[in-house]
Amino acid sequence: MRARLLLLLCGMAVCELAIAKPTCDSKGFNSHSDQIACEVRQSQQRSQEVDRAFADLMSANDHFNRIPGTKPNIFTEWLKSDQVQWRAFTSKDCELQGEVTMGTAGSDVVQQCLQEAYTQRRQVLHQMAQLLGN
Q1: What is the CATH classification number for the domain harbouring 91?
Q2: 74-96 pLDDT, tens per residue?
Q3: Is residue 111 packed enough to be buried (19+ CB in 10 Å), middle (13-18) or exposed (0-12)?
Q4: pLDDT value at position 15?
């Protein structure tokens, strides 16, 4: 089982590289604001991917809850609460990281922070869904 899970996680990592989104390279824009707009769109897209991964996790949780002998909703509220707390923390943490730069690069830092956090969170949510048997 562990070997299968490890193989699955490695496969997911390879897929992540294969479908990597194009970056908002500053060379392709006429202004910094155009580049930031691109970064914001990418962040929003990754945020939506996190929402879909969370929905998949909740579906796996529902399936897990239907297994005979399983304590009803053992993880349901915990998962929901964790997601809300993670979103709040991530937003504040990335905002702080941007503010600490004390310059125009702050918006770049915020978007990069969000994109990395969303990518990592999506992977974690997928892993939990796999563990619950989705």
Answers
A1: 1.20.1270.180
A2: 999 999 999 999 999 999 999 99
A3: buried
A4: 46
Could you tell me the pTM of the whole model? 0.75
> Which structural domain range is residue 61 located in?
31-132
Residue 2 maps to a domain: no
Report CA-CA distances (Å) from 16 to 11, 42, 89, 120, 122.
Answer: 9, 15, 24, 11, 11
Residue with the two structure tokens 């990281």: 97
Domains in the chain, number: 1
What amino acid is encoded at 73 in this protein?
A: N
Residue 83 lies in a domain: yes
Domain-located, residue 95: yes
Report in angstroms the alpha-carbon separations of 23 from 35, 68, 83, 106, 121: 10, 46, 26, 18, 19
The string of DSSP letters for 18-33 reads: HTPPPP--GGG-SSHH
Amino acid at 26: S
In a domain, residue 19? The reply is: no
